[in-house]
Design a protein that fits this description.
Structural class: mainly alpha
Number of strands: 0
Helix content: 55-70%
Largest sheet: none
Number of domains: 1
Strand content: under 5%
Number of helices: 2
Oligomer: single chain
Radius of gyration: 16 Å
Length: about 70
């Protein structure tokens, strides 16, 4: 096994960073909700959708295999 080769390519790491950023943004949006117990539009709808997108991006980043040249 070659120890110099990383398990993922550059595009995988970029996608992982995008997914992490999406998760952070989603949780931040959920925490910004002004309604009691977070039952407003941001806490119930917008934030969870962005968090779910972040998890989907992370899942895709792990499974994505770049084409060999």
């Amino acid at each position: 096994m070659n120890k110099d080769k990383l398990p993922f390519g550059k595009s995988n790491y970029i996608l992982m960073l995008a997914g992490i950023a999406s998760l952070i943004i989603g949780f931040t949006i959920m925490s910004m909700d002004q309604e009691e117990y977070g039952f407003g539009l941001l806490g119930i709808t917008v934030g969870p959708i962005i968090v779910m997108m972040g998890f989907i991006i992370e899942f895709f980043a792990i499974l994505y295999k770049p084409r060999e040249k």
